[in-house]
């Protein structure tokens, strides 16, 4: 299948592993890696590894695109990014031996409304002669754009009738939901922000996920770390609990989950099998820097140790009844 991922504000991830982070002191790293990333790029990596043909687009700073160009060629994705003056941001990820991660995400290159329209037209120029099986928008909006920019992109692209999956947060998530995105993947905090109230327990999480589904989000995926994944769709409400793994770096777990869910839906996998694959792959991702790796020698154990069930009771009382 063909997928185009769109990264309005990609990043180079600088992943620094430390024994423990000491604030306002000299810290010595155990290892440092710099990798082309951002939600759209990470999603592309996973989709290619699952056998899809992927085109990547968005904005890249012309001054430091070499790491991205190399990454696209290594992963086998087609580079359809627009270059803009300046350097793509660097996001710092400090991971400690106990599994804690401190994220410091830079704002990114400023983009004005004119450049935003240029990106939408660039994508539309492609859609005019080649329709992918899905489109995916990943990550935050660049500084300089109002949240409504996300809504206008979603509306314009939805007109092509291609399923549009969006992984973003805050006001941009609200705009994507109102504009008719087909799938989103908030985590617990992002879902609470969307719902406008704290999510105290599992029941509140399910109800908020059902409300999101009720807004027309056909594939509502909520990630909640080690507490699992909730998926609401026309197939019902499903829940997965990941296997226990040694946590090294959680940064790409959500991206891996969403990409594998997109794969599951595109491939028409049955809900149990699809959610199991996505949850296990996302658990695999937290064992190291970067996205989940299906070729890990114990991946079949991770699949076996992932628990998946359909929550019929929630379906009966909720929006799907
Ligand atoms: O666009 P945002 O919200 O700043 O998120 C970007 C970050 O998200 C990730 O894709 C992880 O989800 C990182 O690779 C990247 O640094």
Can you describe what's shown?
Strands 1, 4, 5, 6, 9, 10, 11, 12, 13, 14 and 15 form an 11-stranded mixed beta sheet that branches. Strands 3-2-7-8 form a 4-stranded mixed beta sheet. The model has no long low-confidence stretch (mean pLDDT 96). A hairpin with a 2-residue loop joins strand 13 and strand 14. The relative contact order is 0.13. Helix 3 runs parallel beside helix 4, helix 4 (148-158) packs parallel to helix 5 (170-179) and helix 6 packs across helix 7. The chain folds into 2 domains: 1-20 and 30-137 and 149-163, UDP-N-acetylmuramoyl-L-alanine:D-glutamate ligase; 182-316, Ribokinase (UDP-N-acetylmuramoyl-L-alanine:D-glutamate ligase, 3-Layer(aba) Sandwich). It has 321 residues and is of the alpha/beta class. The chain contains 11 helices and 15 strands. It has helices at 39-49, 66-75, 113-127, 148-158, 170-179, 188-195, 202-214, 253-266, 271-285, 299-304, 312-317; strands at residues 2-7, 11-18, 31-37, 53-61, 78-79, 82-84, 90-96, 101-104, 134-138, 164-167, 183-184, 219-223, 229-233, 236-241, 307-310. The radius of gyration is 19 Å and the shape is globular.
Query: What's the CATH architecture of the largest domain?
Result: 3-Layer(aba) Sandwich
Bound molecules: 6-O-phosphono-beta-D-fructofuranose
Shape: globular
What fold name stands as the CATH topology of the largest domain? UDP-N-acetylmuramoyl-L-alanine:D-glutamate ligase
How much of the sequence is in beta strands? 15-25%
How many strands appear in the DSSP assignment? 15
Largest sheet composition: 11 strands, mixed
Name the CATH superfamily classification of the largest domain: Ribokinase
Give the count of structural domains.
2
* Separation of the first and last Cα atoms: 32 Å
Q: Which sequence of SSEs, written as H and E, runs from N to C?
A: EEEHEHEEEEHEHEHEHHEEEHHHEH
**Structural Rg:** 19 Å
On the 0 to 100 scale, the average pLDDT is 96
Low-confidence stretches: none
Structural class comes to alpha/beta
Number of continuous helical runs? 11
Helical content class: 25-40%
Tell me the name of the CATH class of the largest domain. Alpha Beta
Domain Carbohydrate kinase PfkB: 21-293
Keywords: ATP-binding, Kinase, Nucleotide-binding, Transferase
Pfam family, one: PfkB
GO molecular function, one term: phosphofructokinase activity
């Amino acid at each position: 299948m063909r997928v185009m991922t769109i990264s309005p504000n990609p990043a180079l991830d600088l992943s620094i592993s430390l024994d423990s982070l000491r604030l306002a002191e000299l810290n010595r790293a155990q290892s440092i890696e710099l990798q082309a990333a951002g939600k759209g790029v990470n999603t592309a990596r996973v989709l290619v590894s699952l056998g899809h043909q992927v085109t990547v687009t968005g904005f890249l700073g012309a001054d430091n695109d070499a790491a991205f160009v190399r990454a696209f060629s290594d992963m086998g994705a087609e580079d359809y990014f627009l270059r803009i003056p300046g350097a793509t941001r660097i996001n710092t990820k400090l991971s400690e031996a106990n599994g804690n991660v401190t994220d410091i995400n830079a704002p990114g290159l400023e983009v004005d409304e004119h450049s935003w329209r240029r990106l939408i037209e660039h994508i539309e120029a492609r859609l005019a002669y080649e329709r992918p099986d899905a489109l995916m928008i990943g990550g935050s909006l660049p500084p300089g754009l109002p949240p409504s920019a996300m809504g206008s992109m979603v509306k314009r692209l939805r007109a092509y009738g291609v399923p549009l999956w969006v992984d973003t947060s805050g006001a941009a998530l609200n705009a994507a939901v109102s504009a008719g995105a087909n799938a989103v993947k908030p985590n617990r905090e992002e879902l609470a922000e969307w719902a406008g109230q704290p999510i105290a327990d599992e029941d509140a999480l399910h109800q908020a996920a059902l409300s999101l589904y009720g807004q027309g989000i056909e594939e509502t995926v909520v990630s909640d770390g080690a507490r699992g994944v909730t998926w609401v769709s026309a197939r019902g409400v499903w829940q997965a609990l990941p296997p226990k793994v040694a946590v090294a770096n959680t940064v790409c777990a959500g991206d891996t989950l969403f990409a594998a869910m997109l794969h599951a839906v595109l491939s028409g996998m049955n809900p149990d099998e699809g959610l199991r694959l996505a949850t296990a792959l996302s658990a695999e991702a937290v064992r190291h820097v970067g996205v989940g790796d299906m070729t890990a020698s114990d991946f079949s154990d991770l699949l076996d140790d992932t628990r998946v069930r359909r929550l019929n009771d929630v379906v009966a009382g909720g929006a799907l009844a």
